[in-house]
Amino acid sequence: MSQELLDILDQMEREKGIKKEVLIEAVESALVSAARRTLNIKPDEELKIELDRNTGKITAFRNKEEITSIDFGRIAASTARQVIIQKIREAEKDVVFNEFKGKVGEIVSGTVYRFDKGNIIVDLLGKTEGILPKREQSPKEEFRQGQRICTYVVEVKKDTRGPQIILSRTHTNLLKKLFDLEIPEIYEGIVEIKSISREPGARSKIAVWSKNEKVDSVGACVGMRGNRIRNIVNELQGEKIDIVRYSDDIREYIKAALSPAKVSEIKLDKDNLKAEVIVDDDQLSLAIGKHGQNVRLASHLIGWGLDIRTKATAGVAPKEKEEKIEKEEKETVSLEQLSGVGEKTLESLNEAGFKTIEDILQADIKDLMKIKGIGEKKAKKIIGQAKQAQK
Predict the structure, then answer these.
(1) Cα–Cα dist 169/174, whole Å
(2) What is the rounded distance in angstroms from the CA atom of residue 136 to the CA atom of residue 123?
(3) 252-261 tens-digit pLDDT
(4) Does residue 349 sit in the same domain as residue 386?
(5) In this structure, are 314 and 364 located in the same domain?
(6) Which one-letter DSSP state was computed for residue 356?
(7) pTM of the model
(8) Of 298 and 159, more confident
């Protein structure tokens, strides 16, 4: 058994990466416990067991006197087996922990394994499982068992059952890392991400800037025919992404951040990092966005408080201004509120003079069918969506 035991320990060191000395010390410790039970040795008596590193011979000492009345071969075989199994499990847990500890702040791919009380358990390449807590899930995303999923590693903690890997689909850095992966110019440092503002599952704004004047930062992120940004949008299951051109000129930066709305005038309060942004009446709802989303994201992106006003409400008291804006919003609803209508169709409608929901409702099917790319079926759908948006 002696040489056989050493051979087994050598094999474990090669295959599992567990140092042989660690295994020998564990076997010696386990043998002490086993021998105490077998020999009925009292707790106050000294017992020491040594495993010869060269021959594998096991020697026991009781109060410094060698014990010869016990056969350690049988005990060693059973004990070594248990120790090795335990050490393998511990080593495998440590390997997984160290591997994923190094992935904190990175993206990992896996498949949806199962659902547990609102949490999603993710199989990470067959190595271990990660948990995507409900709080880290985008409210508009749905996954099914076996589906591939891309997640951001938030934290890795040690647990008695093994490493606990916390994943996220809502973290702002998930979007940043997707841009790193998809846009070579960002990965290479030619284009820099200056700021990100995100409402997971709904809409994000990302400000980019190019260190090379010959490289268009926005164009690099969009890609040929929009293929690069489309890949990211698809990965986020349709989350809308506005790519904003960063500028040191705060006025230009604000204008870009509030896109697609057009800004007429900006009054700055640099001491308090606030700006009064004046837009035309037909741009108000677009600048504010549905439930204030556009201005909220733009404000967070640039780090300034933005007060959107029309020329009629510029300088008006806050309460009176809010009442006026609310009335104008009800009267003028942006075409962006039309669900299920593509960007190209929206552009065609705008070019044809249909700027608001009200414009659509005042038209009939034949008027819309005059626009290139809109047939009778699509025209009926657009009018139906307009009616729905007005409610």
Answers:
(1) 7
(2) 17
(3) 999 999 999 9
(4) yes
(5) no
(6) B
(7) 0.65
(8) 298
CATH of the domain at 357: 1.10.150.20
Pick from 158-167, 184-193, 343-352 the range whose average pLDDT is largest.
184-193
Query: Is the previous residue joined to 260 through a cis bond, with omega within 30 degrees of 0?
Result: yes
Q: Which amino acid is located at 119 in the chain?
A: N
Q: Which residues contact 269 (CB under 8 A, 6 or more apart)?
A: 275, 276
Question: 10 Å Cβ neighbour count for 168?
Answer: 20
List the CATH number of the domain containing 140. 2.40.50.140
Query: Tens of pLDDT along 232-283?
Result: 999 999 999 999 999 999 999 999 999 999 999 999 999 999 999 999 998 9
φ, ψ dihedrals at 157, nearest 5°: -120, 150
Q: Rounded distance, CA 215 to CA 185, Å?
A: 9
DSSP bridge partners of 199:
203
Strand order in the sheet with 203-210: 191-199, 203-210, 240-245
Length of the chain in terms of residues written: 391
SS3 276: strand
